[in-house]
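Incident review: delayed structure delivery

Summary: a single-chain prediction request sat in the queue longer than the usual turnaround. Root cause was a stuck worker, restarted by the on-call engineer. No data loss occurred. The affected request and its eventual output are reproduced below so the record is complete for anyone auditing the incident later.

Affected input:
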Amino acid sequence: MQHHHRGLWETFVGDGRSLISFCGICLALAGLFAIFQSLTGHFLPHDVEFLQMAAEELCSINECRIVHFMIHDRISFGGSLVAIAFLYLWLAEFPLQSHEPWAWWTLIASGIAGFGSFLTYLGYGYLDTWHGAATLVLLPCFVGGLWLQHPFLIPVKASIGWKTRLRFACEIQNRCRLSLTAIRPACLHVNPVVLSSLSQRPHRSRGSHSFHESNS
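Output delivered after worker restart:
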């Protein structure tokens, strides 16, 4: 009888696919939490700290349209995370198990676009601390999973039509970005602008009377 002596690292990490699946599970949970939290109609703590007002106070401005926009943005963002999570789980379970290079490159493209988007917060001066903490946790797992999976990929010379597969991977990434995140067009860039503009005008955010008096 052949005995396999595997340590704890080899058991849980293996060829790196488990790390990619772990990222997918975390993204799914984060997306579901974002949807649930948005449905409650409340802001996150760092939102309240940045705006210097709660959702109820902001709702007194412009017929509560800004609050509704932010809730729509968060729900759309949560749905995008869930969709991307299912994509990661599928890639890790099937194409990467068959050592398909296009799946690895698809994850590379998705990781650059996804983790790189966090830097947009720095440009607006608004730091989503929860998003930042999640990025710090998931980025090492994501990079580690891709690094461990790379030696198992089929060599390019043995892969039939590798240029076609690479173009196919890029096409999949583009279609995923269009079909899975089109429901939140420009929200990633517009939402920080809205928050920044509101934070610069705190004297108009205290109650509906001062807001109506300024318009009269």
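Verification: Residues 65-93 form the longest helix (29 residues).
Action items: add queue-age alerting; document worker restart procedure.
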